[in-house]
Amino acid sequence: MARWLNAVSQHRFDEASQFLSTAIGAGRLGKLLQCDGYIKWYRAPEYYARPGKGTWKSEGGAALINQGIHQVDLLRWLAGPVREVFGVWQLGALHDIEAEDAVAAVLKYVNGATGVIQASTALWPGYPERIELHGTRGSAIITGDRLTAWDVTGDSGPASPLSPAIQSGASDPMAISLRPFERQFLDFADAINHGRAPLVSGVEGYRTLAVVDAIYRSCRTLQPVILET
Length: 229
Description:
Blueprint: H1 15-25, E1 32-40, H2 45-48, H3 56-59, H4 63-79, E2 82-91, E3 100-109, E4 114-120, E5 130-135, E6 138-143, E7 146-152, H5 179-194, H6 202-221, E8 225-226
Parallel strand pairs: 1-4
Antiparallel strand pairs: 1-5, 2-3, 2-8, 3-4, 5-6, 6-7
Helix pairs in contact: 1-4, 4-6
């Protein structure tokens, strides 16, 4: 009997990221040069007062693995596999936790592009997360769950879904839109019903987690980490 495994990466189902996945595949941004993710969020002390929050044993980390992992996943999906990372962190810089309150990493992608990822839940009042993609033909920015910039020279493809009406959990976890979760669950049900792989398979989830783990290992050793690709 076939078995299916789905990793929750709901932002792949946002209209903005779906548009960019298709546009990048069609070469509308040209060759990718710089691909970045910024998660400058804030969580009140009460968020981490719950048992196990911000611990290595229970959660495996804090800001990067809990909040930033979704932007890591989008970068992997849109820009491609990551070859090498170098990271630094601040442990318990603001909150009373043993894991990271802030982490910053430099990325080198297999396709030659470079990038950075910054993740924190210590930056009051919290700002919507961003994905920034820059290629030889132009740039695109996702802010929260919306495409907020599409600046591409000589572009003649389908119109971009630009919108300023963003939703983000920058300072309130309850403000995160449930719509992309619903889309992912529907995709998973359809995959089971039709015997196909879901958009975010267990393998895809593992590969994203491997990037997070590599960043953590680099932070601990202060050495670059090369990933298997």
